[in-house]
Amino acid sequence: MNSEKEKQFDYMKKAGEIVKERASEKGRALTYFIQTFGCQMNAKDSEKFAGILEEIGYVATDGEDADFVLYNTCTVRENANLKVYGRLGVLKTKKKKNPEMLIAVCGCMMQEEEVREKIRQSYPYVDIVFGTHNIYKLAELVYDRLSSQKRVIDVYDEATMIVEDLPQHRKYSFKAGVNIMFGCNNFCSYCKVPYVRGRERSRKAEDILNEIKDLAADGVKEIMLLGQNVNSYGKTLEEPISFAALLKEAEKIEGIERIRFMTSHPKDLSDELIEVLKNSKKVCNHLHLPLQSGSSKILKDMNRHYTKEDYLSLVEKIKTANPDIALTTDIIVGFPGETEEDFEETIDVVRKVKFDSAFTFIYSKRTGTPAAKMENQIPEDVVKSRFDRLLSEVQNISSEVVKRYEGKTLPVLVEQINEQDSSLVTGRLSNNTVVHFEGDKSLIGQIIDVKLNECKGFYYLGSVAR
Ligand code: SAH
Ligand code: SF4
After folding, report:
1. Beta-strand relationship, 434-438 and 424-428
2. Ligand 2, pocket-test mutation among 186, 226, 363, most atoms within 8 A of CB
3. Neighbours of 202 (CB within 10 A)
4. Packing angle of the helix pair 138-148, 40-56 (nearest 10 deg)
5. Residues with Cβ within 6 A of ligand 2?
6. Which of 51, 72, 96, 277 has a CB 3.0–4.6 Å from the CB of 167, allowing a cystine?
7. What is the pLDDT of residue 146?
């Protein structure tokens, strides 16, 4: 029996009583708003926060004029940090108008001592601060704040437990993220994640598969298995299991039609996974394989444990087994010591691999990481010019590559009404390419055969196949 789970449900009830009282004083329901910064893990955590807040009795609203505002923060790049401080400034004015408003901040930034100190001193109107290792405690923290009027700052240095089966409120009815592991052991020299998310911990396969079965029973068709390095999933479990084996088990679950996963570290990608990608009907025809740099020297300084040649031969192996697969990647420009030649190596890999798309990032110096202490930090103007060159190279290649299905008919999972034109719906191919076509909201969540009439760079315009 998971006593922490029971304890937290108890806090949901107790906090719920206070929220109910306040709602009846106000003559309306209390509202909440969550802003998520950063990656899919954070998006997933936010669904858990939404579940807990709704269980307490808060009702979702669209903007920051809410009774409870929660910022789920990211610290991978400095920009993400700056955005949070900016938004907190705006909240100060809102709280003046609604003094009973509660403001909470959580997530990766809060794991950093200097951030907590800054919030403690310069943002006294922030009510609740918590970190990445105690997200399951949200109800308790809300209760503490509601019942004591004192601000609550609660951040753990390390993860202590994984609490299963707390409420979740999914953003989409037909697709869902599923955590398979937490943390990271890789310590890439530029990256803050291992410091703020802690050591790698895998969830038990049984818990993951049960969650997927429940999702399938609830109508979910597409799942995204989430971890910082899914290829090392399961290695430290009492009953070790490989990521490929987990995929094979997930695939057996009836009702699930598409399985995605994120992220694969090239150094740990197994032949067994390549086989699953090739043979599986449900595992999507897409692999996100972060390159970071094409220069073996820079890769070594990044502590990535592969060379340019390793990466290219891995891609070769993957493409030989799955000629149609869409490959996407992450690339960092301007890592300390990156010369023009190193940068050219990156461009060379981009040309050779022909990625369907690439997330390109300007290197951001993060305190506490080994790279921050490296000499030869690259001047901003040089980085900016390399970044622009890389981006245009990536875009040119991707618009060619994405086009390969023009004229074909392929299944599309419809996700939403098109944001610009409400006569269209927007969905994705198995390979993750976006498709827009005429349709209405009754199609959302369905997998429809769509003729891909015209490729517009990184997306398609199509029509329902007849
Ligand atoms: N675990 C994932 C990545 C998580 S962070 C992986 O290894 O692929 C997502 C991306 O942010 C990384 O792939 C990297 O490209 C980028 N990133 C991480 N730290 C960064 C930094 N200090 N500056 C710029 N980009 C960074
Ligand atoms: Fe960061 Fe590297 Fe871990 Fe990815 S694998 S989260 S880039 S340390």
Report:
1. antiparallel
2. 186
3. 24
4. 50
5. 184, 186-188, 191, 193-194, 228-229, 265
6. 51
7. 95
Alpha carbon of 191 to ligand 1 centroid (Å): 6
Ligand 2 centre to CA of 270 (Å) is 18
C-alpha separations of 173 from 15, 218, 223, 465 in Å? 27, 8, 11, 25
Atom 4, ligand 1: which residue's CA is nearest? 228
Rama region for 14: left / alpha / beta (φ>0; ψ in -120 to 50; rest): alpha
**Share of residues in the chain with pLDDT > 70 (%):** 100
Is pLDDT above 80 for 440? Answer: yes
The whole-angstrom separation of Cα 115 and Cα 78 is: 12
Atom of ligand 2 nearest to the CA of 303: 2
Q: What pLDDT band is residue 160 in, cutting at 50, 70 and 90? A: confident
pLDDT, tens digit, 9 for 90 and up, residues 245-266: 999 999 999 999 999 999 999 9
- Residue 218, token pair as written in the block: 């609830």
pLDDT exceeds 60 at position 442: yes
**Residue 265 CA: which ligand 2 atom is closest?**
5
Atom of ligand 1 nearest to the CA of 191: 19
CA distance 279 to 322: 9
Q: Taking a C-beta distance cutoff of 8 angstroms, is the pair 52, 167 a contact?
A: yes
**The two structure tokens encoding residue 29:** 């329901």
Residues 6+ apart with CB under 8 A from 274: 317, 318, 321, 322
Which of 299, 330, 374 for mutating ligand 1's site (highest number of atoms within 8 Å of CB)? 330
- Amino acid letter for position 309: E
Ligand nearest, relative to CA of residue 186: 2
CA–CA gap between residue 70 and residue 60 (Å, rounded): 12
pLDDT band for 2, please (50, 70, 90 cuts).
Answer: low
- Nearest ligand, measured from the Cα of 189: 2
* Residue-wise pLDDT tens digits, 280-309: 999 999 999 999 999 999 999 999 999 999
What's the distance, CA 177 to chain centroid?
A: 9
Other CB atoms within 10 A of residue 442 CB: 9
DSSP assignment of 55-85: HHT-EE-SSS-SSEEEEEE--SSHHHHHHHH
Instruction: Say what the pLDDT of residue 372 is.
Output: 96
**Cβ contact 246:212 at 8 Å:** no
| Residue labelled with tokens 């998006």 | 43
The best mutation among 193, 264, 268, 359 to test binding of ligand 2, ranked by most ligand atoms within 8 Å of the C-beta, falls on 193
Count of CB atoms situated within 10 Å of the CB of 444: 18
Residue 225 φ then ψ, to 5°: -80, 130
Nearest to 101 by CA among 117, 90, 112, 86: 90
